[in-house]
Design brief:
By secondary structure, the protein is mainly β. It has no helices and eleven strands. Strand 7 and strand 8 form a beta hairpin. It starts with a strand and ends with a strand.
Length: 114
């Protein structure tokens, strides 16, 4: 069974930075991040496919960067210029592109507040 372990969530001030990490127990070509704010639906933040093909939500473009260390089965989400609206639980996920099956991590809380 695939296991995902996220870390890096914390309290940050507006304009600050955080770096999230997600370690997978096995290698997946497609990995990424969703987030869920209180009272809102879960939304895609960013994903990475293969060595470096990336995609971002419009709301985080030019502020967030997703990257991976394939040797460690780990992805990172560097979050800069944080805004209050970035607050939420961030979930790492992996997707089997053949079956479409998605596996989720337990989530890590990001709070942006002054």
């Amino acid at each position: 069974q695939v296991q995902l372990v996220e870390s890096g969530g914390a309290l940050a001030h507006p304009g600050g930075s955080l770096r999230l990490s997600c370690v997978a127990s096995v290698r997946f070509n497609m990995m990424g991040w969703y987030r869920q704010a209180p009272g809102k639906q879960r939304e895609l933040v960013a994903y990475i496919v293969g060595a470096g093909s990336t995609n971002y939500a419009d709301s985080v473009k030019d502020r967030f960067t997703i990257s991976r260390d394939s040797a460690k089965n780990t992805i990172y989400l560097q979050m800069n210029s944080l805004k209050v609206e970035d607050t939420g639980v961030y979930y790492c996920y992996v997707r089997n592109q053949l079956s479409g099956q998605t596996t989720w991590g337990q989530g890590t809380q990001v709070t942006v507040s002054s």
